[in-house]
Structures are given as C-alpha cells and as structure tokens.
Specification:
Radius of gyration: 34 Å
Strand content: 15-25%
Structural class: alpha+beta
Number of strands: 14
Oligomer: single chain
Bound molecules: iron/sulfur cluster
Largest sheet: 5 strands, antiparallel
Helix content: 40-55%
Mean pLDDT: 91
Distance between the termini: 108 Å
Number of helices: 17
Length: 527
C-alpha cells in the first residue's frame, strides 16, 4: 500500500467531508426571483457557538422575564420594574421614572444605541447581526426546535426530500406547533411591557383584555413565526437595511470573519498526496464543514459577502478540522483587511504569483515571522476612540441630567384674553394658569408664592383664605395639579409691573423648588 494513500485514509477517517454547496453562492448569483433553496445548517460546536448560546440565553431571558420583575415604588405607582404606561404617559425603568417632557432621555438612549452600533461595527464588523440581533436569536431558537425534532442537517435534508409519511407529518406538525407556541409567547411577552403583567395575563386568557392586546399578539406571532421559522436568512439578505449600511462603517482595520486563503489555498482533498507529488497545497482540505454550518447558506471561502452575518460558526467548524489535521487554528478567523492583504501579498510575492503557502511558512512548518497576526490594539484607533468618546459623552450627559433633574415642575400660562382686568378700585388683575408637576409617587404639599411685585397679592380660584402672597396646595402623587391664579397689583404701584416677578413652587420640607419668570400686564401697553 502506498504510504500516501494510507495517510490520506487516516486523514479521511478523521475528517467528515460534507456534500454541502453554498446555496447563496457569491460566485454564481442566482436570479433574484428564483425559488428559495432551503438551508439546513449543521449543528456547530466550539467557542463561538458556546458564546452564542450564552448571548441567546441572556437576550431571551431579558425579553421574556423582564415584565415579571417587580419594583416597589410605594402605594401610588405601579410595581412593575419596566413598564411603558401609555395611559398615564409614564415610562418606568426600575428606580427611574420618565415623564413625557423628559422624552429626551429616550432620545439620548437611542443616540447612545446608534453610536454603540457604529463603535461595535467599526471594531468587530457585524457582531450585532451575528450575536444579538433578534432575527438571529429567534432563528437560532427555532433551529434548536427543528434539530430536536427532525435531527441534524443530513436527517433534516432526508426528511425534507422524502415522501409524506405519518412520521414526517407528525414531526412537521410538532415542529410548527412549537414554533407557533414560541411565536405566541414572543408576542405575549411584548404586551406585558405596556401594562401590569400579571393582571394583563389574567384578563388576556379570560378574553377580557383590550382588542389592541389581541391584535398586537396576533401581529407579533405572525411576524415571529414567518421571519424566524419560514423566511430565516431571507430577512437578513433581502429585508434588512443593516447589511448595506454596515459596509460604510467597516474599514481596513475592522475585524471581520475571513477565510485566510493565503494559507488555505490551493485547497486539496488529497493534500499529502499532492504535496508528495511536489504540488503546492494549502491548509484547506475542502471538507465543506464551514459551508454546512453556515445559517446563511454561503461559502466564506468565496470572500466577503453581504449575506455573511459574522456569526463565526464557520470558524468553529474549521477550527475543529484544523485540530484534527494538526494545523494551527484560524484558517477561518476574525481578521482585518489590512492584515489579510499583507499576508496575501506575502503568499503571492506581492501579487505577482499564485498563492504559495510555502512563502508564509518557515522551514520547520510554523508561520514565518513576516506573517501578520491579529493584535487587539488595532481596535484602539481614531475612529473607534471617536465613537467611544461620543458614546461616553452622551452617557455621561444622560447620567448628569438624570441625577440633577427636578422632581417638582411648574408650568405657567399667562392669560391672553383678557390680558388684564381693571378692578372697580383701580387695581389691576392678571390671571395665570399654573400647573404643578409632582413627579414623585408620593402626595405632598407644594407652597406656591410670588417673588417680586412687593405690593401685589395672589388669590387662588376656589381656595379659601382670601388674598395673600403664598398658598399651600396639596398635590396628588405622580400627577399634575392645575390651579387658576389671580395676581392683583394696587393702582398706585403699577410701576412695579416693569420689574416682572416670579411664581415659585416649593416643597419646603423636601427642599425642592421650581420657579417661573412671569410678566404682569398693565393698561397702556401689554407687556
Ligand atoms: S460565512 Fe461564517 S460567519 Fe458568515 S454567516 Fe456563514 S457561518 Fe456565519
Ligand atoms: S475552510 Fe476549513 S472547514 Fe472550510 S472547507 Fe476548508 S478546511 Fe474545511
């Protein structure tokens, strides 16, 4: 027996060669309206897959469980930790309560999310797509169900191609039933963010919830089932704008999942035989493991492609193969274009010759010193530092605004019609619509007073006690209290109106204070 044949056989025994072709081949683009070819991703094992499991558990856990977390805010506010209370126009997030006029916090968070995405993309490409995007996470979840019922890639392909039997029907009904249950749970979890979750669940199952709740669950059930179960990779390829946008954000120093053909080519299924015959061979044994695990149905060896969501499962698949054949991991790896280009230039003698892996290896078979390897410091560059600085500034600004914001608000609208009233004794009266915003979930007494206009007095419509310069007004917890205020200036002191005055709201025991610089209109020209 030829020694090379024996070696080939032992290598073949270790490596499973898969009959996998890239469904979405970058080399041979299929017509846009051609019928979809199904993808049956093989289960991957490895560090990136483990990381993806962890991310999936965390993200799904956060999504499904958050509405059930309780947070005690006292008797006058809901005890749901995260709640978008549309009816009361409040957003609760643990100890933070956002009023409508504080919506800039949400806008600030969106700005942070945007710059966070820019930062991550410029540093590590489409990490969002590959690990945390809801489409990726739910497709992963649906694939877990599919594999558990129909088996791994080969079994699923066989079942799909086979005739309809009772077994196939049973498996398909079970799979789609579980998918639908997940989809319903997904839609159901969403509505719990908008009302007290336990109460809404009780009213929902007894068919007493508002119609909008059922419509929302129905729409989200349909979209989750269709996008996660049926359309899968097509959502990323055809519907999502992010693959197009991200191309503008990556540069030659961004990390992207890369097939290092400078060490992989020429690929060969019979490497040792070819090497013995004096041919140049790379590390790729053309086993197609990377193609078989790809949820997008592409072959990363075709180069960077719009479809690649950088889930890194092909890295896991290829690393396992490299381990088996005793080569360094990283034939498929996160790499920057600049490193890749430098290594490619080395392997091709500056682009003048075909790839020759011998050029990137030393005599003992290890990589030559000229080969560039990934250096984490590449992440710290002007672009990423700039994004990080903006992200941090926005975050610090929000934190500062949060800790320094007032929980007592005062809005005043000066009456315009009439702008003033001249009383029978000649004194002049102005009216004001005053709104006191008690932004804490506790009742309190707010003292409303005037500062300035030393001879003016104030009266509150409907309140006992006649005229004065200061009134105590009880306000409801977490509510706006509106009062009508009349300020009167004796006729001999109308010149004081030039100075203006302030309406001041104070929580004297709590030390909070809000004021409004008001004007006082007098005959002879409204000020
Ligand atoms: S090519 Fe690799 S990283 Fe890209 S989608 Fe496929 S498996 Fe994921
Ligand atoms: S790149 Fe790796 S996993 Fe893909 S065919 Fe080559 S050896 Fe196999």
């Amino acid at each position: 027996m030829n020694i090379y044949n024996a070696l080939e056989r032992s290598q073949d025994a270790a490596i499973e060669r898969l009959d996998a072709e890239a469904v979405n081949s970058a080399k041979v683009r299929r017509p846009l309206y051609e019928k979809r070819k199904k993808i049956f991703p093989k289960r991957a094992e490895g560090r990136f897959r483990r990381f993806k499991w962890i991310v999936m558990l965390i993200t799904l856990g956060i999504y499904y469980l958050t509405p059930w977390i309780r947070w005690d805010r006292g008797a006058h506010a809901p005890d749901q930790a995260v709640l978008v209370d549309l009816a009361a126009r409040r957003f609760y997030f643990f100890f933070i309560e956002i009023w409508p006029q504080e919506f800039f916090f949400v806008a600030g968070l969106l700005v942070m999310a945007g710059f966070g995405l820019f930062l991550v993309t410029s540093a590590i490409g489409r990490a969002w797509c590959g690990y945390a995007c809801p489409q990726t996470v739910w497709v992963d979840l649906f694939l877990v169900v599919e594999r558990a019922i129909e088996g791994d890639r080969n079994a699923r392909m066989k079942l799909d191609a086979g005739p309809w039997t009772l077994d196939k029907l049973g498996k398909r009904v079970t799979k789609h039933g579980i998918w639908l249950a997940i989809a319903v749970a997904t839609g159901g979890a969403w509505i719990f963010y908008f009302a007290d979750a336990p109460k809404l669940l009780a009213s929902f199952v007894t068919l007493q919830a508002a119609p909008v709740a059922y419509i929302t669950v129905a729409v989200l059930t349909a979209t989750t089932y269709v996008f996660g179960g049926l359309m899968r990779e097509q959502v990323c390829t055809y519907m999502c704008p992010w693959p197009r946008i991200q191309a503008a954000m990556v540069d030659e120093n961004s990390l992207v999942v890369t097939y290092n053909d400078w060490r992989g080519e020429p690929r060969s299924r019979h490497a040792k035989k070819a090497a013995a015959a004096g041919a140049s061979v790379g590390d790729c044994v053309d086993c197609n493991a990377c193609v078989a695990v790809c949820p997008m149905g592409i072959d990363i060896r075709d180069g960077q492609q719009l479809e690649c969501i950088t889930c890194a499962l092909c890295i896991d698949a290829c690393d396992a193969v490299m381990d088996k054949i005793g080569k360094e991991r990283g034939l498929i790896a996160y790499a920057t274009l600049s490193d890749y280009s430098a290594n490619m230039a080395l392997a091709t003698d500056g682009g003048t010759r075909p790839i020759d892996p011998a050029r990137i290896r030393a005599a003992d078979g290890s990589f030559s010193d000229q080969v560039r390897h990934f250096d984490w410091r590449i992440i710290l560059r002007l672009r990423t530092v700039f994004y990080f600085a903006i992200w941090m500034l926005a975050g610090l600004g929000l934190v500062f605004a949060l800790v320094s914001r007032d929980r007592l608000g005062l809005n005043v609208i000066h009456d315009r019609n009439p702008q003033f009233v001249v009383e029978s004794d000649g004194s002049i009266r102005n009216g004001y619509e005053v709104k006191l915003l008690n932004m804490i979930p506790e009742p309190r007494v707010i003292t409303l007073s005037i500062e300035g206009l030393p001879h003016a007095t104030m009266r509150i419509s409907g309140q006992e006690g006649g005229d004065g310069r200061s009134f105590d007004i009880p306000v409801q917890p977490d509510k706006v209290t509106a009062v009508k205020v009349f300020v009167t200036l004796p006729k001999d002191f109308r010149a004081e109106a030039e100075q203006g005055f302030s309406l001041v709201a104070e929580d004297r025991p709590g030390g909070e204070r809000g004021s409004y610089d008001a004007r006082f209109n007098v005959p002879g020209g409204a000020r």
